[in-house]
From TrEMBL:
Alphabetized UniProt keyword annotations: Cell membrane, Membrane, Transmembrane, Transmembrane helix, Transport
Record family assignment: Belongs to the binding-protein-dependent transport system permease family.
The organism's place on the tree of life at top rank: Bacteria
GO biological process: transmembrane transport
Membrane-spanning residues: 45-67, 79-99, 124-149, 170-192, 232-252
Pfam family, one: BPD_transp_1
Name of the protein: Sugar ABC transporter permease
Primary site of residence: membrane
Amino acid sequence: MPFMVNVSYCFTLAENDSVTPLNLFRNIGHVFTSYSFQLALKNNALFLLLAMPAIIIVSFLLALLLLRVTVSNAVFRTAFFMPLVIPTAATIIVFQILFEQSGFINHVLRVFNMNTVDFLDSRYSLLIMVIIYVWKYCGYNMLLFIVGINAIPKEYYEAAKIDGAGKIKCMYYITLKLIKSTMFFVIIMSLINSFKIFREVYLLTGDYPSERLYLLQHYLNNNFRNFNYQNLSIASLMTFTFVMLILGFLYLRRNRIEKGE
């Protein structure tokens, strides 16, 4: 029922509650020509392009590293997983201490007589958002990779070594080939978790952050506060459609890979 109400708002105007297809195209045009929506869409796209490869590579490398560590292995796994269970408010306090105008990093810069930087309103702000995301969720992905790699029979590696395969070939032809299902699940979860980064950004910067940190969730949240349900409905449905298209593409790609196409 809430979903249908949301769809119905797409066919109405603020000054006219009649439901007509023409209103839908007007609302879509209004949202697409909105600078704030374009900005939010661009920032989300840039964030995904940076964050998705970064978290997959980092978590995979951590998984390989911890599989080789035999001493205190459980301790390291727990340490990397801890950011996920730490309350968001505590996470924000840590990054405020580090990156605020009066934070630790700027304090170090002052000690060395260097210019301070407002990191949350600079060209580094998107990078900081990526760091927060990777720091928070790489431990979860790392555990998924560890489970997937441990499920590979050790006999495959032993046979490959007998045939003269090195570590790189074993990595490519055995590990990466046999964790496709795990990789697919990690990508899906990373995509879902990427939209959760809004909590940290919102607590750090509020409703109206710098332009580099303005996300789709900011646009949705601000339209809700302003009672602009038409823009809110259109943008939310477009976001939903965008995510479903990505998931559908990944699913079809996975099926093609498994069939060897």
